[in-house]
Amino acid sequence: MLAKIEQTLKHLTPFANGAKIGIILGTGLGALVKELDIEHSLPYGDIPNFPVSTVESHQGRLLIGKLGGVPVLVMQGRFHYYEGYSMQEVTFPVRVMKQMGVQNLFISNASGGLNPNFEVSDLMLMNDHINLLPEHPLRGKNLDTLGPRFPDMSEAYDEGLLNLAKEIGNELGIKLQEGVYAAVQGPTLETKAEYTYLRIIGADAVGMSTVPENIVAIHMGMKVFAISVITDLGVPGLVKKISLQDVLNAASIAEPKMTRLISEMVKRI
Questions:
Q1: H/E stretch holding 214
Q2: Which has the closest alpha carbon to 224: 136, 165, 146?
């Protein structure tokens, strides 16, 4: 792992811009890229040891530039366990971001809403998660130079960043929900019984990403902010068949609000 990180850093160092903020853009949430002053655009396939996204809605580029004048590293598309990658591969870019100087990690995703108060295209601030994925990204020998064997997860999502998001949301008139995200393997969407189960155990939304990246970021001492776009509903009586296009359509409605929120947060950190 350490040798791979060093090899990747050697490739990326000439492009480094001193960014303290990293952003991972999930399904259908690429509008933020339009606000970037892009200095370098690197396809994942050109970066040593980076996986290549196989999901059609993920562009698969590492963007290095500025957002509102602030240096950032942006992953336009991510990797998922269901694509066949190990958790170490899924989270490898987060390891690299940390070594490049990133201290605050912003993560976005599309998810199914379980809370009956949610509506399609709502934005949900993640204040906690339930990890139901079958493999843990820290499984195996711990690398003490990266983080402790037993990282504390009692504040998985930084309270300061959550409060900042709520403050900005109020200022901009952006409706924000808040809740717990359950991470499952996928790639199938949930059955009605599974939606009910997830709600019973305390989840407000369900998806197939974000938690592995969060765990690795916390392991390395980073602060994490995560936001979900509710693209469909897993609420009894409201469950219906959906396609990827339905997910993208719902995400596109929420994109401008999410872009404004994150852009303003980046300026104020």
A1: helix 211-219
A2: 165
